[in-house]
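Quick illustration, no need to memorize.
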Amino acid sequence: MQLLCAAKENDVVLSNNSPLGVRFHYLKGTSSANEKAERISKGNPGSPCTEKHLSFNTEFTKEPICTASKKYQKLKLEQLQTLQLPQQEYEKQVQEVLDKECLCVGLSNSAAINYQQTFVKKLEAVTICPGPNIANFSKVVSLQTMTDHIYGRENIMENKNRPHMFIAELNLYMNYLREQLTESPSPEQDAKKKKYITSFCSNLHEGITYYRNLSTVAVTERTAFDSALNNTEEELNVLMTAHL
């Protein structure tokens, strides 16, 4: 809870940590992140995989295993060492393997700690996956106070310069686009990637136009809202010109 209170924008990242490959926002500096880093530094990456709720991979085994498990990561890293990949691609794929984290235990342990119950198989690491909006809040409150905030009876948000939610959403999409543009697809994937990026940019343009035409949105801060839309659209055009 203290990590959540102290979280700033750069502390919440769109991660590749899910064993299922689903992107989600992730709070840095958790005990789970520290535990994973320690295992990697000791040359023993991966989790024990005691619960097996996310065991779906059969790349190396007949029985499905989890990509965050010690067994899978050992086998996958050994395979990568034999593929003679270019150094940059090798390091990228190794990082993709090591990013994976046990969520069965990590996401349930916060409740176990709060209610002083026995940890799952005595594993104590906690994973926290808040939305990036957590950066606008900085204190622990009751459920009643949280509800009052949601319904406008109280304001517990300390960031007075918080962007409009539509602008914040656009920023998330733009961050994702920048990330995609920094990745170098293989020659056989290049045409498919360009088609995806073109469609993505087109959808962003349509979204910006849609937001611009919402006359009842951000009435009291319309100038700042329109300026943010214009800046985003300008950057989007620059990115499209440079990469497509």
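The radius of gyration is 21 Å.
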